[in-house]
């Protein structure tokens, strides 16, 4: 059985904590954290075709990044 941990903390500390947790729980922790941070930036900044503020240039890309992890977790 796979256990999930959800923690609430300032986004400014998430990458640092994820790096530490990934040593014990694997790179998936870090990958999911970076994805969450990108989606958070997108939530506040919206799509950015020039890539100056967000790495997500359009809504379609953001939708895919939201839906794919959900599809993976549904299989677990």
General description of the model:
This protein has three helices and no strands. The protein is mostly helical. The chain is globular, with a radius of gyration of 14 Å. The N and C termini lie close together (9 Å). The mean pLDDT is 86.
Q: Provide a count of the helices.
A: 3
Oligomer: single chain
How large a portion of the residues is in β-strands, by DSSP E?
A: under 5%
Largest sheet: none
The average pLDDT value, as a whole number, equals: 86
Silhouette: globular
Task: Please bin the fraction of helical residues.
Answer: 55-70%
Q: Strand-and-helix sequence, N→C? A: HHH
Rg for CA atoms: 14 Å
Task: Measure the end-to-end span.
Answer: 9 Å
Number of strands: 0
Low-confidence stretches: none
Q: Briefly note the structural class of the backbone.
A: mainly alpha
Which SSEs are present, and which pair or pack?
Layout: H1 11-25, H2 27-45, H3 59-75
């Amino acid at each position: 059985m796979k256990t999930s941990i959800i923690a609430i903390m300032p986004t400014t500390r998430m990458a640092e904590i994820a790096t530490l947790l990934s040593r014990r729980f694997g790179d998936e922790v870090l990958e999911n954290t970076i994805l969450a941070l990108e989606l958070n930036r997108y939530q506040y900044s919206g799509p950015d075709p020039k890539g100056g503020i967000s790495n997500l240039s359009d809504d379609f890309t953001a939708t895919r990044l939201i839906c794919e992890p959900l599809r993976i977790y549904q299989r677990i």
